[in-house]
Design a protein that fits this description.
This protein is mainly β. The protein folds into five domains: 82 residues, no CATH class; 194 residues, 3-Layer(aba) Sandwich (Collagenase (Catalytic Domain)), CATH 3.40.390.10; 76 residues, no CATH class; 116 residues, Jelly Rolls (Sandwich), CATH 2.60.120; 98 residues, Immunoglobulin-like, CATH 2.60.40.10. It is built from six helices and 30 strands. Helix 3 packs across helix 5. The structure holds 2-acetamido-2-deoxy-beta-D-glucopyranose (NAG) (8 copies). One 2-acetamido-2-deoxy-beta-D-glucopyranose (NAG) binds next to strand 13.
């Protein structure tokens, strides 16, 4: 080994010459295509024609394109749409893929008449955000219905004042989450920044996204709303004059829709690399939100962070629901077949009860009733629901959510006529909240009734019953409810179809009032983020002269600030494993060192640095996303 190890590098004692040359790794920027596809007809709307984007680490020599797709509620709540994102090194591959994804049987011949502004062959979208034809869509590819394409009208992006809230690095190698204001007056810019700062702190300061925060940048992009129309629309009305047109549907403290997706898209696009996950904040103190192309939330004190975490779980990890009564159950935390190992088999608690074929048992539970009434309550007649119990379970929980009920005397919640002694979350006011009333006794076989009886007449018009559900559980032996226990738990969809989840209530994708994901989702989060972020930020080489006059060749690798390089102490067990090689030989003395110095006279040759981020939060990394390697060659001597 022709290497000299210099034990201490005291910079003051060395002269730096020539200056450090910076060999910034220039990762290939792949092309990205974004489609909205009708789930049944496969008619497509090209939201983004191929354009260059951040590197995608799932694109490898054997993997010519990477695809992400999910079905989400439309921006106006009218049905669902599948968002498909495809990545490839070459634009042509995306156009080919487009033909496969979109049903050409539905192409309307008139799509290709002169009324549509299209070019053939398709050309890439101009990358300049302000280009006149930014939002013009191309209709020349088979499978694209021009009517759907041209629904998008060109809009000028709203004025934006952008601030960095927190983050650790250049957007080229980070995932960027960007908050956009809606319904904030020009004079409320500071309130917006405070709202965003608080939300970011709540979701990444000490919990939820805390361990992955060094992979993220958070931005706040302020756009003022019109003074006259400041009142935030409760329903979609004429002349919504906020930048993105956020609105509620009637009185529901529920979904927060947006009327101007094309404006939001253009605003996000104008930020380039700094807008991977756009979030629209509607300036309203009460519950509301939506997941999808844009996450929408409010700065509600209690519900803002809760909705934000949950919706970002859907978009960043790409997981479905874990709560009952939803329609989409997918991702690393969802299983559908008990005859096969679950996707989280490597997280199962060791003593989890294995059945004969070594597969874990399903914890015993049933959901005899579940409803989303979203109904206003009145004092004239209570809202009631009846259901039948099989009488074979040991315990149960009554789970419901209410809004507009700040005091405990406002309403009686009765179970078979017995008062459940509901009390509101302290300090909640009229906002929405979720309640669980656990009852450690068995229900008798036969009919039971849950009743919501409004007592306070003054709450009529705002008192609302949002959701109600009853779950029955087996005994301690049949249903392990211990936090931290990973097994197989049944989840019941809106159609009462069963899928499976890893923990009872450890995940905010199930219990939205908890602040953290379960380990299975956290692992999914790391893998998802590391598919776009490389553990190696850059490598550099340089020269140093010692005080004795000899020259050293220096090699340095800059890593994401994780493990031993975190700003604060790591809250989990994690570290980088770093290995340097020269002409294929491991440089033994340099294990786990980021900056090395070699005798210049013997430093010519081929080098590589291999970095693996080892964390207890990831147990399985089949694609090697936690590892990265850089190769380079030293061609010349320092002196
Ligand atoms: C994290 O900080 C919030 C306040 O921002 C606090 O309510 C919560 O208890 C903290 N959680 C942990 C795990 O320290
Ligand atoms: C769901 O299905 C289970 C098992 O078939 C049944 O016992 C339960 O009552 C059903 N619940 C609802 C809400 O339909
Ligand atoms: C009062 O609420 C009950 C239960 O939701 C409903 O059936 C009834 O129509 C309501 N009455 C009025 C006057 O709104
Ligand atoms: C409960 O079961 C009884 C007997 O099968 C049936 O008559 C009744 O309609 C059921 N109640 C509900 C709410 O499903
Ligand atoms: C496993 O299941 C059996 C019967 O289903 C039960 O008797 C036993 O207590 C369970 N063991 C654990 C560790 O949950
Ligand atoms: C660290 O890297 C070395 C060399 O590549 C390898 O032998 C070792 O198994 C790695 N250790 C861990 C914990 O990954
Ligand atoms: C380098 O760090 C990894 C991860 O902490 C550790 O497993 C390995 O033993 C270290 N290597 C040496 C030679 O210290
Ligand atoms: C470095 O990483 C590459 C690719 O992951 C792997 O093939 C090679 O064996 C690694 N070398 C060392 C010394 O760990």
């Amino acid at each position: 080994m022709h290497v000299t190890v210099l034990l201490t590098l005291v910079v003051g004692a060395l002269s730096l010459s020539p200056p450090l040359s910076r060999h910034q790794h220039v990762p290939q920027k792949p092309f990205e295509l974004v489609l909205h596809r009708e789930p049944e007809t496969h008619l497509c709307n090209v939201v983004h024609a191929p354009r260059q984007t951040k590197p995608h680490r799932r694109l490898t020599t054997s993997q010519t394109y990477a695809q992400e797709s999910k079905t989400v509620t439309r921006h106006d709540g009218k049905g669902v749409v599948e968002i498909v994102k495809v990545y490839a090194a070459e634009e042509e591959l995306l156009w080919e893929r487009l033909g496969e994804l979109c049903d050409s049987g539905h192409v309307d011949a008139s799509a290709f008449t002169s009324t549509v502004d299209y070019q053939e062959p398709p050309v890439a979208w101009l990358p300049e955000p302000d280009a006149e034809d930014q939002l013009r869509l191309l209709a020349s590819t088979p499978g694209i219905d021009s009517k759907l394409c041209t629904v998008e009208k060109k809009k000028s992006p709203v004025p934006l004042s952008v601030r960095h809230i927190t983050g650790s690095g250049h957007s080229a190698n980070r995932v960027d989450l960007t908050f956009f204001s809606d319904g904030y007056l020009a004079s409320e810019e500071d309130k917006f920044i405070q709202d965003v700062t608080r939300l970011v702190e709540e979701i990444s300061g000490n919990q939820t996204f805390h361990t992955v925060a060094p992979l993220l940048n958070f931005w706040a992009a302020f756009s003022p709303s019109n003074e006259a129309k400041r009142r935030w629309c409760r329903r979609q009305a004429e002349g919504i004059s906020t930048p993105f047109g956020l609105y509620r549907d009637g009185t529901e403290l529920r979904a927060l829709y947006y009327a101007k997706p094309e404006v939001a898209r253009a605003a996000c696009d104008s930020l380039g690399d700094r807008c991977d996950y756009p979030i629209l904040i509607g300036n309203d103190p009460l519950y509301g939100g939506l997941g999808g192309e844009f996450v929408t939330i409010t700065p509600s004190e209690v519900n803002g962070p809760l909705v934000l975490r949950h919706e970002l779980g859907h978009s960043v990890i790409d997981v479905g629901e874990e709560y009952d009564g939803g329609f989409a159950y997918f991702g690393p935390n969802a299983g559908h077949d008990t005859n096969k190992p679950m996707p989280w088999a490597h997280w199962l608690t060791h003593d989890s009860n294995l059945s004969n074929d070594k597969l874990p048992r399903v914890e015993r539970a049933v959901m005899p009733i579940q409803a989303y009434p979203w109904t206003l309550l009145n004092t004239t007649a209570p809202w009631k629901i009846t259901f039948n119990s099989s009488g074979t379970y040991s315990r149960h929980v009554v789970r419901f959510s209410l809004s507009g009920l700040p005091e405990e005397d406002d309403i009686d919640v009765l179970f078979d006529g017995h008062d459940l002694e509901w009390t509101p979350k302290p300090g909640l006011g009229v906002d929405r909240w979720h309640y669980d009333i656990y009852r450690d006794d068995a229900l008798s076989e036969g009919e039971h009734e849950i009743e919501f009886a409004l007592r306070a007449g003054k709450r009529e018009g705002i008192a609302q019953l949002c959701s109600v559900e009853l779950l029955e559980f087996g005994s301690d032996e049949e249903f392990n409810a211990t936090p931290g226990f990973y097994g197989v738990f049944p989840t019941f969809s809106e159609k009462n179809e069963t899928s499976y989840r890893p923990t009872n209530e450890d995940c905010l994708m199930r219990l939205t009032t908890t602040p953290n994901f379960c380990s299975v989702c956290v692992e999914g989060l790391w893998l998802s983020l590391l598919s776009r972020v490389d553990p190696i930020d850059s490598i550099q080489t340089g020269c140093l002269q010692t005080d004795r006059g000899s020259w050293l060749r220096t090699l340095k690798v800059d890593l994401l600030p994780l493990g031993q390089f975190r700003a604060g102490p790591p809250s989990t067990n994690e570290a980088y494993n770093i290995t340097w090689t020269n002409d294929g030989q491991i440089l033994d003395g340099f294990a786990n060192i980021t900056s090395i110095a070699l005798d210049d006279r013997k430093a010519l040759g081929k080098y590589s640095v291999n970095v693996t981020f080892v964390t207890e939060e990831v147990r399985a990394d089949p694609e090697g996303l936690l590892s990265s390697e850089r190769k380079f060659e030293v061609f010349d001597r320092c002196h």
